[in-house]
Every structure is written in structure tokens, then in C-alpha cells.
Description:
The protein is of the alpha/beta class. The protein has helices at residues 23-33, 41-49, 52-56, 72-84, 95-114, 130-140, 157-160, 163-168, 187-195, 222-228, 260-264, 277-280, 323-336, 338-358, 397-406, 419-425, 430-437, 446-457, 474-485, and strands at residues 60-61, 122-127, 148-152, 172-176, 178-179, 184-185, 203-208, 231-236, 255-259, 271-276, 293-296, 303-306, 368-371, 382-387, 409-410, 412-414, 463-467. Helices cover 38% and strands 15% of the residues. Strand 11 and strand 12 (303-306) form a beta hairpin. The protein is globular, with a radius of gyration of 24 Å.
Amino acid sequence: MSRGAGRAGGDAPERRSYEPCDLKRAYAAFLRRFPPYADTARIDELRATEYARLGRAGHTYLDYTGGGQYAESQLARHHALLSEFVLGNPHSHNPSSAASTRLVEEARAAVRGFFNAADDEYEVIFTANASGALKLVAEAYPFRPGSVFLLSYDNHNSVNGMREFAHAKGAAISYVPVRRPALRLDERALRRALRGVVPGADHLFAYPAQSNFSGVQHPLDWIDAAHEMGWDVVLDCAAFAPTNILDFGVVKPDFVPVSFYKLFGYPTGIGVLLAKREALAKLHRPWFAGGTITVASVQDEGWYRLAPPPAGFEDGTVDYLGLPAVIIGLEHLRAIGMKTIHKRVTALAGWLLAELTTLKHSSGAPMVRIFGPRTTERRGATIALYLLDPEGRPNDVYEVEAAAGRELISIRTGCFCNPGDGEVAHNITHDDMERCFSEPCAIVSLMECQQVIEDATGKVPNTIRVSLGVASDFGDVYRFMRFVAGYRDRVAEPIG
Length: 496
Ligand SMILES: Cc1ncc(COP(=O)(O)O)c(C=O)c1O
């Protein structure tokens, strides 16, 4: 159908334009449609005070799965604390060291309290980020021939990368696929895979509580099912924890990585591995470092006993100046309430999904394709999509990101370090991928790989992602819709 032509035999689709002058009316309609949002008005106050910089600069921030936003008071409280205390390296007994040790232990207790992780059940190990937490597990897990490392397709690359340690120790690697269009895991295949291992060896199953690509939330009762069949479980909560309640009184995964900047924006560079004590006891660390052992000798080349956790798993000096900011960040989230944050982003995501999926070109052709669930059922507020032209061709995601950027809208594009979801979403086969990995091949970047696949198959293996978080408001999603509506009837430029 030619550009701008009417829909044969039907009414012209409604043209929503999302003009600034219509915002008030749209907001009132939104509140009628999503009444629980009204309970989150406290965040609107915070948006005008604690997060005022977003509005001052005219920003529309839609990349919370990439990184959270911090409140002004987090910075002020952290600064005040650093100004007040004299803090030194915690590995000693002098007063400045003791003060740091106290704050580090307070941070540990705050993390434990926030996630309701019982002291006698879970260890709190500070790392640089979620990836660091995953590497701690991967390098020390007792993989051996006979072990299986089972992963869902929609893991982040920092989980996929764990397979290199499993490979090196002779373990088998197995993946359970996700299925189009909702990108949910094939549960029957999962049950088969969980049942199909020989007892005796150690087996590890890793999946995300929420996909950082599609927003899909997987059942947490898989953890108990896997335990019953003899597996240890890594539950990647990096994308889940910022807007959902994670309660270790209810769910009992063995290893859970989290990055704090994704929860409350500041500080960056601190993450945590929450590990069940009995699962932690299975791990054999491949090296030692300052702080992780009791005794080492140069002359004897010996080293004795890993220090008990958490010290035995915290290489070198922890970020003792940054950790008080974790306490402050957790207190900030607690004061708002995770239930409130969850309610708010769910309502906003519900509206966004409904608007995106009803938007049409003049021809009646859909303007948006969603990769993942089209409603808020069993999903978080992370939405992967294409903007389509009237012929159904995707607009170049990098061009879209640049155009959004010109309006100070921060969205994310690419594959989000989640190749499995991307491959299934875009129907990229094993043979397609092989083009990037077979010899001779001069591919050195993701862009080049995407171009090779696209040239050969016409498939466009990259995506747009918008994600909501602690400071999101209706204005953010409304402005994004206005931006999207600007693509109505626009013919996509050839990509590349
Ligand atoms: C689901 C998931 N897992 C792990 C990570 C890795 O987190 P980090 O880069 O903070 O180590 C991310 C980052 O986006 C993620 O979304």
C-alpha cells in the first residue's frame, strides 16, 4: 500500500499525536485506566525535588535497566557522612580503620535487611557489580565432567560468560530456549532438562528473574523445582531488583547477583553476591588475594585456609567510602517503598504497551512491533521494540536513538548483552550466526556482525529498548509516545 493511502474498506485509524497541550487530558484518562497509579503520587513530589535535574535539563530518561537515577539527598547525605568521619582502610584496628569496618558491616546488614536475607542462611559479599558476583561463582563452582551448566536463552552475557569456566572444567553446557512472540521460556523443555541429569555431580542452573531484553519475568518457583532435582540455582536479579520485591524469606536461590547503581543510581562500582551459606561452602576459589586468606608465605609458597566468608570472597579492599552510599540508597528506596515503585512502573508500562500496540500508520499498518509480552502480565517495565514503517520495515534503531537523543530522550539500542533473546526475537538461526564466527572472518565488532547477518538474510538483529524505574512519571512515557508518533507514515531509510 502506498504511503499515506487510506485503509481499504475501513475507517481511517485514529491519529494520536500526543501534543503537549493534550498532556493533562491524557493524564486524567491514564489515571482512570490505571487507578493504582494514584497511590504513587509521592514519587511525583520526589520527581520535583529529588530528581528535579531531569526536568531542569529537559531530559526524558528511559534507560533504567541500563542504570538507575539517584536522588539529590543520597548525594548530600553521602557527602555529609564523608565530611564527618575520618575513614581509613578497613583491614586494621586503628580508629579510622575501625570506623570504616563499622560502616562496611552496617552496609552488609542494610543489604541483608532490604532483601530479608536471614543471617544464618545468606552471606552478603560485596563485589564491583553483578558481573563480578557472577564471576565469583563461575570460577569457583565445582564443575567437572558429568556436571551440567544449564542456562535459559535470555541470560545476560555476564551469565553466558560463566560457561567458559564450566567448559574448561569439562562440564556440559545446555540451553533452554525462549519462544516467540512472548519470549517466554519453553517450560516443558526446562522440566526435561532439569530431570535429565545424573545425580552425583554438581549441576548449576542459571536464569534471570527478569530478562533485561524483553522484560519477561520467569516463575520463581523454578528454584524449588530445581533444588528438588539436585541443582544449585543462580537467579540473576540485576534487572529485576530495581522495581520488584526480592524477598529471601520467600524465595531461596543459591546465588544472586545485583548491581546497586541499577537500584538507586549512585554509587556505581558496587554490587553484591547474595549466596546461601551451604552453596557457598561448595565453592573452591582459584586464587587468593589481600584479605581473602588467613596465612600465605613467600618462602614456602603455601597459603592456608580461605578466610571465612564474606572476607574469603572479597578480593582486596572493598569500596569502603562508597559502601555507606549503599546504606543511604537502600534507605531511600525503603522510604519510597518497593511496592510503590513496582505499582508505578507497572501502570506506566501498561499504558505504554497499550499505546504502542494501537499506534497505526494512515494505511492501518502497525507502527510498532513489541518483542516480548504485550501486556503487563508476568513482565517488568522493560520494553523491547521496533518502529516500523508503513511497509513493515524497521527503522534503523541507531537512527532512532540519535533522533530521540536530539529531543533529550535517552533510550537504548542494540542487543543489550542478551544475545539469546535477540536471536529468537529476530529469528536469527544458528546458520545465520555462524557467518560471524566461521573462518576466515574479519568481523571485529557487533555492528559488523549485525551487518553481515543483515546483508545475507535481510534480518535486522538489533532492537530499541525503553525501561522505567524509580523516578519515571507519566510525562516521560507521554513524551516518548509523541516521539514515536512522529514516525507515522514515514518511510524507513535503508539501514546501514
Ligand atoms: C540481567 C542482567 N544481568 C547482569 C548484568 C550485568 O550487570 P553489571 O554490568 O552491573 O555487572 C546486567 C546489566 O545490564 C543485567 O541487565
